[in-house]
Amino acid sequence: MPSTHALESLSNALATPAQLSSSSSSLDGIPPDLESSIRFAGALLTQAAGVLLRLPQDVIAQAIVIFTRFWIGADGGSFAIHSAKDVSAASIYLIAKLSFHPTSPRSVLNTYTYLLSKEASPLWFVNSSGASDKPNPETYYLSEGGYQAQRLVLLKTETIILRALGFNTHVVIPHTIALTYLQTMNSASSALGKRVFEHLNASLLSPQLLYVTHQPNALAVAAIYIAAREVGVKLPEEEWWEVFDVDREELGFLVVAMNSIEGFANSEKEAWAGKRIPLLVEEVEKELRQRQTQEGE
Questions:
Q1: What is the dihedral of CA 148, 149, 150, 153, to 10 degrees?
Q2: What pTM, to 2 d.p., does this model score?
Q3: Are residues 183 and 196 located together in one domain of the fold?
């Protein structure tokens, strides 16, 4: 029998129904669709920053989960008070520091300055027209004074995140679990493993917040189920997912949710075509004013 500690080490703290039904942002008047868009863009921003900082995907994934957790519930952070950009940067900095791949505040802040540059950024939700071929270096240069000011914000935001999460930074990522399951079923192959990882990485962007509503073993099973069908790998005919403690109902929900992520991402691109998704508090305030003006016309 595995010990209780061993089981806990393979599970995550999940959001409660009460936390999912009411967020701090909604209490501050942020519409659900705007909240979802900012959270989506913030997760993409975190992923892009992690890649530029050359962090392993498991570290990046943990940072995205921490970023997502911060905004959940009435006691969580609000987009009306905290910048999604600052929370993203602090999440990356915090998780990297706790891993074998720490990165300096300067590296983190230089990366975010570049990614939020209106000329240089390759991110579609920052530059709707695409990055300039020859961006002005001044648009993504962080001065020493700017660095010192942003460094204080980074460290303060890190503390705010830790307090909001009760200093619980434990995050189990399902990728390794999925590989173990594939090996158990003698179904491991590079093509299948690659597709499983693609679904697990995409799920970090899910509007259903799959990483904070379902345990990693369930995410692993669902990704395997979908990927096996796509790649054409035959899995055991019996209900193999039950061996990994996942019932048919949960599997069905996760399969539908994972398959809907691409459509959600495309709808976000359409909804924000030609516009910048607000990642700073002042940008959120501006978006809210514009919506109020449109409603009043």
A1: 120
A2: 0.93
A3: yes
